[in-house]
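SAMPLE LOG
Freezer: B-3
Tube label: C17
Construct: single chain, 494 aa
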Amino acid sequence: MKAREKDPADDIENDLEKKKLYIKAFYNESWERSRGHPVDSDTVTLLWSVTVSIFALGGVVGTLMVKLIGKFLGRKYTLLVNNGFAISAALLMAFSLQAGAFELLIVGRFIMGVDGGIALSVLPMYLNEISPKGIRGSVGQVTAIFICIGVFTGQLLGLPELLGKKSTWPYLFGVIVVPAFIQLVSLPFFPESPRYLLLEKHDETGAEKAFRTFLGKENVSQEVAEVKEEARERRNICLVSVLELLRSPSVRWQVLTVIITMACYQLCGLNAIWFYTNSIFEAAGIAPEKIPYVTLSTGGIEILAAIFSGLVIERLGRRPLLIGGFGLMALFFGILTITLTLQDHASWIPYLSIMCILAIIASFCIGPGGIPFILTGELFQQSERPAAFIIAGTVNWLSNFTVGFLFPFIQKSLDTYCFLVFAAICIAGAVYFYFVLPETKNRTHAEIRQDFAKRNKAYPPEEKIDSVLSDKINRSPEPGSSSVLDNYTENRIV
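STRUCTURE (predicted):
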């Protein structure tokens, strides 16, 4: 897998902020060289805003491409082809300074967004489908762990001694080539998703072989039987479209849960933390030239918290980690608001603010940082999963764009009280998950679906038939009814 499934320049916008002056100077030089006159400040601000936000728009485009590409290529080969976007984006951004064209940087950011949109939909889907139900959460958490490793790597490479200089900042974007190359040479040795092979390609032999490779054992009859049971329940149901999934009453609450989960994932305020990090470190007496090194602690906390989540998720479950994560974030946001308001009243208060920042980051990575992608794969059957990830990805990237666009205005209006807005979002999400979300650990997709069926008060057509058939079998037979029931069952099987 890639060591980083999202653009490093997106997840560490604080590092991108440090390079803002370098990039804006590049815009000025490139504009004057190509157009013969200096660029005005408003245009520079616009170009900067487009550079930052266009990544999220690329993510939406990539997400919308998933179903079309995945239908023909499958999970594995979609990930392989997606590396073409990553490599082309890295080359465009890395050589934009040498070419003297800021347009290459902007186009590269967009293409990198496409890569991120595809990867963050297909990779969790692939991990969900290759994992036994007993370790499905831990394997799914791998996505979050490597995202955190990517953040830390970007922070490290962004230090002034490495690539954080005026002459080398474009190569920080070009580092994306490394994880893309690693995936290109390693992923071909892994099998395709066995669930995809059996349910969509009807290749039972290939599915059994894939199960044996992933599970490391010869007898995979139980795993194959579990997938066949899903196939039996969903017979004659083709891949559903996004519109069909949104209209289906049998998955109404699953869709709503995924939408709220992804919206809270982006709107919970973690990105806003970076806005205050440097000022809080300075208030604590840390020299400005030392702040980049201290910031590495945030990346380290992210990695440790994500690994901890992966180790305990199959013991504690998804619900406690998700609800607890959002609840703790709301608590520490409240404390951070108080410490930021009073930080000039005592010398020790800024240190308390730093502790709150680290606690918020840890709370996010323990639960909300990875579980939304796991849930999207668990709440839907095979035929619905691609459309579900399109919905989840679209909400994810649009929410990312929204918070990036609106936060400066919120911060300007509310100042340090802006974190109360994010605390309210975290509380709302925790309350919703407490009352609606069932526990999904160590459960089959069919069992999870049954939990939601009670709330949806609607069943898929196949399940309705099963219910009717069961009622007829349990009912006392009337004269001549046996042959009718046998004919009905036989026709349904055909």
